[in-house]
């Protein structure tokens, strides 16, 4: 029996723009890769938290290009 499904995509954004990786050791004494923010894409709409649940067309969230 075949199951039909729906494509769900997770968009991950580095809010630091790469600076967390470069500067975290000198500022915090601990290396961190990024400051992450995520959005979930369903049916061409991206949902994310920004002072409440927000929705925008996929790929147009204000956090840049998803990694």
Large-scale geometry: elongated
**Count of helices?**
1
The H/E string reads EHEEE
**Rg, Å, rounded:** 16 Å
Strand order of the largest sheet: 1-2-3-4
Percent range for helical residues?
Answer: 10-25%
What's the rounded overall pLDDT mean?
A: 90
How far the N terminus sits from the C terminus, by CA atoms, comes to: 35 Å
Q: Count of DSSP E strands?
A: 4
Uncertain stretches: none
Overall tally of domains: 1
Largest sheet, in brief, is: 4 strands, antiparallel
SS-based class: alpha+beta
Amount of beta strand: 35-45%
Offer a quick outline of the entry:
This protein is of the alpha+beta class and 67 residues long.
Structure report:
It is built from one helix and four strands, in the order βαβββ. With 67 residues, the protein is of the alpha+beta class. It has one domain. β3 and β4 (53-57) form a beta hairpin. The mean pLDDT is 90.
Quickly list its features.
alpha+beta; four-stranded antiparallel β-sheet; 67 residues; hydrolase; 1 helix; peptidase activity; PPPDE putative peptidase domain-containing protein; protease; 36% strand; PPPDE_dom
How are the secondary structure elements laid out?
Layout (H helix, E strand, L loop, with lengths): L7 E7 L4 H10 L7 E7 L2 E5 L3 E5 L10
Antiparallel strand pairs: 1-2, 2-3, 3-4
């Amino acid at each position: 029996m075949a199951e039909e499904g729906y494509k769900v995509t997770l968009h991950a954004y580095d809010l630091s723009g790469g600076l967390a990786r470069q500067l975290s050791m000198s500022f915090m004494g601990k290396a961190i890769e990024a400051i992450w923010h995520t959005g979930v894409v369903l049916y061409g709409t991206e949902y994310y938290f920004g002072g409440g649940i927000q929705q925008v067309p996929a790929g147009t969230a204000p956090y840049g290009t998803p990694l």
